[in-house]
Amino acid sequence: MTYPPAYFQDDSQASILALVQQAPMATILFATNDDELNNAIYAPLVFDESQQVFIGHVAANNPLAQHQSVKVKILFHGPNGYLSPNHSDELVVPTWLYANAQLTGELTLVRDHKRKLSMMNFITEHFEQPFANPWPVSALDDEKRDAMFKHIEFFTVSIHCWRGHFKLSQNKPLRVREQIKQSLSEQGSTTLAQQI
């Protein structure tokens, strides 16, 4: 038995990265002394296509920062919401719609100062895109930037396994999906509606 059903799976890197673009805050699971992924931290991640790795940073006192290299599982949670039978004249029971991804890979801390600066620029430029006047890292003088770098640790994550779980009524006829999409939009769930 396959779970989730094949029509709710999309393991393509492109689909998962589109989800990450919308919901970059990741739950990162990692092990300490044993092999159990029983520690969880939270950090926004950005995918560097040129290097084919996710990049991010955490506070220097974060437990994750105590590991030079560690196996991780990363969870991204995209839009989700309740689907009522009222959303379509052909729906019989309620359910929940969601777009999530589960990735496994290897996290490695970055020690090189120039690379840290490059990563900070990359992350900042990515998240500053919506602003008319994006804030540049260069606005910080060297002293402030170096002081900030003492309190954060940068890392990369190379991904070995991409798993996308998109339960968005793919098993319903197109007409029903269009009704659901319109109804969700009218209810204010536009981000979820756009996924359908």
Automatic annotation (TrEMBL):
Matches recorded under SUPFAM superfamilies: FMN-binding split barrel
Alphabetical list of InterPro entries matching this protein: Split_barrel_FMN-bd, TR_PAI2-type
Top-level division of the source organism's lineage: Bacteria
Protein name: FMN-binding negative transcriptional regulator
Lineage: Bacteria, Pseudomonadati, Pseudomonadota, Gammaproteobacteria, Alteromonadales
